[in-house]
Please model this.
Amino acid sequence: AVVSTQSTGEMITKHCGITYSGMGPDFRILVRKARKIAQQYYLQYDEEIPVSQLVQRIAYVMQEYTHSGGVRPFGVSLLVAGFDDEVPYLVQCDPSGAYFAWKATAMGKNHINGKTFLEKRYNADLELEDAVHTAILTLKEGFEGQMTEDNIEIGISTTAGFRKLTRSEIKDYLAALN
Model:
């Protein structure tokens, strides 16, 4: 038997990850383009691309598709998380190519309630554990059905790099909230 799971979050570089809301196939194309941009930068400068430059270049690609003939714009909003020299980044990139930096944000189907929830709960002094709990509680605000380790993904970006939590780690976080 072959088991296939479609991931909604992907690593682009060691210190940068990306997720989306919208059309999955468009996301996969942009992930490939982002990885190629990052690799070209690495080959030229022998260092990882800064998150801000990566976002700017992805946004440029997305913006190009809004006014090019014969192609349609990408039907996806991106959320890019990363670290550069001890500086955290969380940037949302819209289909138009516009991008915005955030301290915390939500996107997707129930993003308005998620943002309202984050405005009440977020503060700059959150420890990593508390930030993950806040993120899960924000997801629960608009989640339909039972939230389990099988139907959510959590990515963490720290100075050590970007990584996705394992299913068992997610299960532990969910158990701690109940």
